């Protein structure tokens, strides 16, 4: 006698937050069965690929180098293939705004004047169950034009006419994160499959009816085999729901150092669904530290704010990305302008805006087809830079950048930087890391810190630099701390001073009711542990409400 078929989905009752208003609109029996099918078919491969990441990391530790893959040389040398032509809704991407899918941000991002909104379930969103389910509800409500929001101050927010709204590109969580609230056959479902599955199930046909489609940003990709997995998921999902093959479009974030050596292969694997590649910054630097943390002094990064996109190894990466994309007919999307305009300080505001303009002018001049901003007030600034280069053209993919020649060594030439680690950089890493983790534990993923909009990538590079500087035996070379070595004791002292200042500012009662002490303890545990944690968000998720 055959065994009974497993039930489509078992939901783990982990806490009262499981039962949210309107969650039944998202967690329908059919939607959960679709997620369960994705999980059963694809999670085993996801697990194999996560194990492969660890194997590759061990190889990098042994060799302290990376190279383009010899086994995929034929893909790189074949000039005949191109990615699928961009749909009309994704042909002009000159300005993209990023942000979480809370109700206010959903309205503001769609209304911002940007061509695209990266609707984020990943680094700009702490994955509380409320954020995971609520974000899906907000996107459905936006497409149905039944979304509005009233602030505590009484200000109301509503959508502009449909033709003025940004095109939505959803970013699901990375492969490493699980969703503990949904289990199949007793196993947590990867957050990536939850975010993708629920969104695609509920919105694929709805978006087609609106003249758009299900578009995605794929984060934390480390190899072309991971891109192949996503492509297989897309093929299955479209077939399963009766959506035409090639309807899905995906833009891959090249935010890991290993992916930078496989950009053409990643586009090739996704070629029927590929839309473009994006050049990150903090996650990319975080990936360099993670992979080359055993590589000695030549891989030690200086203060994170000293590593701009004009650094030689960063410029090699971005120019190679533009050349790769345009060679294959894909969009090249530039990095983030995280500055938050401050209308109360016009002088500082203008200085910061001048840096944003210079950054966006450089990207447009280098051949990028668009770029990111974190705040609606920066949309016109970025648009002006790209308008000046693009004019009426939707993109500049015809600019092939055949003048660009980048070697494998160029991408990891960290020692070309003249800047060195500083005490002020250490203090900033501790302060920013502490403030971000505290907010994340309260369910916030996009956090204003010292005039910049920060997400999880900021905390990752901050704690990684602390770890790297300690383990590389960094000694400060100038200032009043010249000759001082970065040690766990020094980091604890800096963190204690910062926490004491926060406590004094908040008062004892408010401090006791906050998550500051937990954030402090977690940051130090991750930054000072001898074993380097793969992702800060993994232990942090255990503390998330």
Structure report:
The protein is α/β, with parallel strands linked by helices and 545 residues long. The chain contains 19 helices and 15 strands. The strands form four sheets. The protein has an eight-stranded parallel beta sheet with strand order 6-3-2-13-12-11-10-9. It has a three-stranded antiparallel beta sheet with strand order 1-7-8. Strands 4-5 form a two-stranded antiparallel ribbon. Helix 10 packs parallel to helix 15 (456-471) and helix 15 crosses helix 18 (516-528). The longest helix has 35 residues, at 29-63. It is globular, with a radius of gyration of 23 Å. It starts with 9 loop residues before the first strand and ends with a helix. The model is unreliable at 1-6 and 12-17 (pLDDT under 50).
Strand fraction equals: 5-15%
- Put simply, the count of helices is 19
Query: Largest sheet, if any?
Result: 8 strands, parallel
Q: Briefly note the structural class of the backbone.
A: alpha/beta
State the strand order across the main sheet: 6-3-2-13-12-11-10-9
Give the CA-based shape.
globular
Rg on CA atoms, Å: 23 Å
Helix content: 40-55%
Distance between the termini: 44 Å
Mean pLDDT score, rounded?
95
Number of DSSP-assigned strands? 15
Give the low-pLDDT segments. Answer: 1-6, 12-17
Q: Indicate the multimeric state.
A: single chain
């Amino acid at each position: 006698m055959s065994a009974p078929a497993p039930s489509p989905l078992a939901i783990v009752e982990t806490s009262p937050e499981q039962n949210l208003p309107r969650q039944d609109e998202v967690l329908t029996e059919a939607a959960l069965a679709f997620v369960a099918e994705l999980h059963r078919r694809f999670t085993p491969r996801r697990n194999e690929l996560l194990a492969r990441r660890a194997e590759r990391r061990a190889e990098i530790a042994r060799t302290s180098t990376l190279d383009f893959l010899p086994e995929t040389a034929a893909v790189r040398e074949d000039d005949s293939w191109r990615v699928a032509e961009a749909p009309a809704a994704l042909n002009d991407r000159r300005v993209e705004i990023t942000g979480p899918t809370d109700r206010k941000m959903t309205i503001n991002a769609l209304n911002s004047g940007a061509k695209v909104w990266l609707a984020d379930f990943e680094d700009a969103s702490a994955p509380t169950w409320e954020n995971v389910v609520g974000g899906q509800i907000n996107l459905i409500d936006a497409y149905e034009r039944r979304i509005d929001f009233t602030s505590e101050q009484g200000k109301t927010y509503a959508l502009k006419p449909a033709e003025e709204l940004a095109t939505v590109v959803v970013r699901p969580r990375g492969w490493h994160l699980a969703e503990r609230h949904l289990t199949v056959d007793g196993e947590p479902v990867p957050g990536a499959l939850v975010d993708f599955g629920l969104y695609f199930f509920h919105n694929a046909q709805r978006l087609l009816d609106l003249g758009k489609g299900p578009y995605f940003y794929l984060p934390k990709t480390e190899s072309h085999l991971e891109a192949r997995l996503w492509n297989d998921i897309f093929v299955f999902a479209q077939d399963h729901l009766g959506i035409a093959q090639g309807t899905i479009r995906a833009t891959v974030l090249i935010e890991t150092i290993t992916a930078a050596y496989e950009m053409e292969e990643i586009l090739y694997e996704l070629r029927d669904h590929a839309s473009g590649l994006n050049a990150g910054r903090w996650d990319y630097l975080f990936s360099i530290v993670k992979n080359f943390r055993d590589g000695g002094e030549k891989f030690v990064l200086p203060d994170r704010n000293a590593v701009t996109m004009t650094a030689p190894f960063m410029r090699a990466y971005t120019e190679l990305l533009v050349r790769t994309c345009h060679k294959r007919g894909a969009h090249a999307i530039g990095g983030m302008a995280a500055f938050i305009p401050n209308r109360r300080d016009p002088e500082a505001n203008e200085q910061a805006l001048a840096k944003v303009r210079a950054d966006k002018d450089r990207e447009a001049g280098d051949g990028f087809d668009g770029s990111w901003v974190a705040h609606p007030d920066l949309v016109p600034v970025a648009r002006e830079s790209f308008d000046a280069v693009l004019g009426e053209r939707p993109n500049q993919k015809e600019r092939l950048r055949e003048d660009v020649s980048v070697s494998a060594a160029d991408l990891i030439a960290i020692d070309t930087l003249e800047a060195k680690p500083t005490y002020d950089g250490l203090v900033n890493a501790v302060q920013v890391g502490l403030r971000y983790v505290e907010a994340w534990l309260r369910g916030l993923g996009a956090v204003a810190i010292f005039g910049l909009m920060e997400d999880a990538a900021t905390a990752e590079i901050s704690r990684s630099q602390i770890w790297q500087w300690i383990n590389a035996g960094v000694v400060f070379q100038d200032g009043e701390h010249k000759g001082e070595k970065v040690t766990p004791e020094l980091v604890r002292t800096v963190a204690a001073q910062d926490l004491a200042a926060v406590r004094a500012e908040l008062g004892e009662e408010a401090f006791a009711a906050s998550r500051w002490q937990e954030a402090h303890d977690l940051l130090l545990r991750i930054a000072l542990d001898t074993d380097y944690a793969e992702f800060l968000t993994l232990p942090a998720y255990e503390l998330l409400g």
